[in-house]
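Take a look at the protein record below and tell me what you see:
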Amino acid sequence: MPRLGFAIAAITFCIDWAVKLYFLYGLDFINLNEGQGFEVTSFFNIIMVWNPGVSFGLFPAESDAGRYFLIGFAFVVIVILAFWMFQAANRWLAIALGLIIGGASGNVVDRIVYGKVADFFHFYIGDWHWYVFNIADAAIVVGVGLLIIDSLFGSEPAKQERERVY
């Protein structure tokens, strides 16, 4: 299962970075600066937002020390998740961990290269607006959701392993 998880992580990372590079440098018809964007549908915009914090702008790292802390923390989390993936008992757990590792890696590279994370996708309904996010953020959310589902309804061998350990 680890090979599947690491393949998912690599694919997630590559898609995230390809999309970010396209929106940052590949749009000839519009120059996306901070806060600028364009309407795609009546409920979805592409807008350029730099996020100095973690998910949804929490814990903004305005200083270099804060930025380095977030980079270091993310590396530790990625390593822990990678070790967990080597123990993955089923396909869904490997996919979940791969999505989280790939997403976290994409955002770490943003933080290393730019000092903050590039976000572009903005969904809204009327006056209700969701946070602007990127592919990496979406992969992390889906991965965490799969982890929760796996922990509640995982495969029988995984359940037996959890019961044996505890």
Remarks:
- The longest strand covers residues 117-125.
- The mean pLDDT is 86.
- Strands lie at 37-41, 44-51, 117-125, 128-129.
- The CA atoms of residues 96 and 145 lie 8 Å apart.
